[in-house]
Amino acid sequence: MNKPELAKEIACKAGMTKSDSAKFIDAFIEVVGETVAEGDSVDLKGFGSFFLKKREARKGMAFGKEIDMPASKTVGFKAGKTLKDAVN
């Protein structure tokens, strides 16, 4: 499912316009991104948690040669019980 399809489904379920649901999705993505970038987590009970993951600098292999991989940050997501149960 892509973003326009998601906006359409949310609009149907929430009784709102597709345009309003698309604005909601954009705002949700922006708020989650800003919050996680600040080092805080976003916990949605039943759905899951978005959080910042930090990776330490390390050695790796590329094309048979050892390389230095710098420290980095990424977004983690852990599914909540309700989401897990919906998938099973």
The residue ranges in which pLDDT falls below 50 over 5 or more consecutive positions are none
> What's the overall geometry?
elongated
Q: Tell me roughly what share of residues is in helical segments.
A: 40-55%
Q: Considering the protein shown, what is the CATH homologous superfamily of the largest domain? A: IHF-like DNA-binding proteins
Largest sheet: 3 strands, antiparallel
What is the total domain count? 2
Question: H/E series, N to C?
Answer: HHEEEEEH
Distance between the termini: 19 Å
Number of strands: 5
Structural class: alpha+beta
CATH C-level name of the largest domain: Few Secondary Structures
Average of per-residue pLDDT values: 95
Fold-level CATH name of the largest domain = HU Protein, Chain A
Strand order of the largest sheet: 1-2-5
The DSSP helix count reads 3
CATH architecture level-2 label of the largest domain: Irregular
Rg calculated over all Cα atoms:
18 Å
Strand residue percentage:
25-35%
Concise account of the structure shown:
The chain has three helices and five strands. It has 88 residues and is an alpha+beta fold.
Describe the structure.
- This protein is an alpha+beta fold and 88 residues long.
- It folds into 2 domains: 1-39; 41-88, IHF-like DNA-binding proteins (HU Protein, Chain A), CATH 4.10.520.10.
- Helices cover 44% and strands 33% of the residues.
- The protein has helices at 3-14, 18-37, 81-87; strands spanning 42-44, 48-55, 58-62, 65-69, 72-79.
- The strands form 2 sheets. The chain has a 3-stranded antiparallel sheet.
- Strand 1 (42-44) and strand 2 form a beta hairpin.
- The longest helix is centred in the N-terminal third of the chain and has 20 residues, at 18-37.
- It is elongated and about 55 Å long.
- It starts with a helix and ends with a helix.
- The mean pLDDT is 95.
